[in-house]
Amino acid sequence: MDAAIDAGGSCTDVLLAEGRHILVSRTLQGSDAPEASTGVLDEVRERFGIPRRLFVTGARASRVSYKELTLTGVDEMTAIGRGAQRLAEKSTCLAMSMGTGTALVHANGDAYRHLGGTGVGGATLVGLGRLILDEGNPDTLMALARNGDATRVDLTVGDLGYKAVGILTPDDTAANLGKLDSRTPEDLAAAIHTLVGEVVGTVASQAAHRADSPNDIVVLGKPAANPVLRSVLDRVGRLFGTRFTFPDEGSVGVAVGALNEW
Ligand SMILES: Nc1ncnc2c1ncn2[C@@H]1O[C@H](COP(=O)(O)OP(=O)(O)OP(=O)(O)O)[C@@H](O)[C@H]1O
Ligand SMILES: [Mg+2]
Prior knowledge:
Blueprint: E1 2-7, E2 11-18, E3 21-29, H1 33-48, E4 54-57, E5 71-73, H2 76-88, E6 92-98, E7 102-108, E8 111-118, H3 122-133, H4 138-146, E9 155-156, E10 173-175, H5 185-210, E11 217-220, H6 227-240, E12 244-245, H7 253-258
Parallel strand pairs: 1-4, 4-5, 6-11, 11-12
Antiparallel strand pairs: 1-2, 2-3, 6-7, 7-8, 9-10
Helix pairs in contact: 3-5, 4-5, 5-6
Bound molecules: adenosine-5'-triphosphate and magnesium ion.
């Protein structure tokens, strides 16, 4: 029985696992989330006993400590790649951690190569929601987006008078937020999701082709559970000939990858 903590830019995920069996999965938010993981470990210890080992990763990993347990730091790019390999059961894949921002890691056996990424991610979606709609709850933004139509806000290829141009069809985006025919919260929320999903999906698709893994983009991170973002990514994938996979437990996938055994 081992514990793993991903102290990310926004959230701190605490996992307790026995082999592939996740016994505890808890997510903490807020500025003191890395330190607050101590409380979760206290609870874990009461219920299950002391974990054998504690693995830590993420931008705020250095702020985690726990009593007598020795911490093992895990390189974040390794944790991202290994988490994607484990959850998707693929030894070669393009791991995409869509968290606060977005990181891309090519995983091949036990080699993990950071390919870059983009500063557009979950925090961008929430930041745009706050700026445009005064709404920073991702679940509320998602519920709005489900009832909205981004093509009333985004300029499409068809709006420019094209039937088709290059690889694009009339429904594809020519310019995100380039039309603004509607300003309803639902349509604006849909356009925010479209912008974030299209940027992330395009960057990932191009990287996946370069890495020769177009059919194996494995998406981790909290935003990966968002069905509206998933459908944008699926559409981007059809356009670029790539395929996005959203494994179960992907929202804590980086913590899964930090574990030594799976
Ligand atoms: N359903 C959702 N849809 C979109 N964004 C979401 C959703 N739920 C959470 N987020 C956003 O996702 C981010 C947190 O995701 P996650 O926990 O995967 O990242 P992190 O580990 O904190 O960050 P990083 O890995 O970039 O350091 C936050 O910016 C949060 O606002
Ligand atoms: Mg994380």
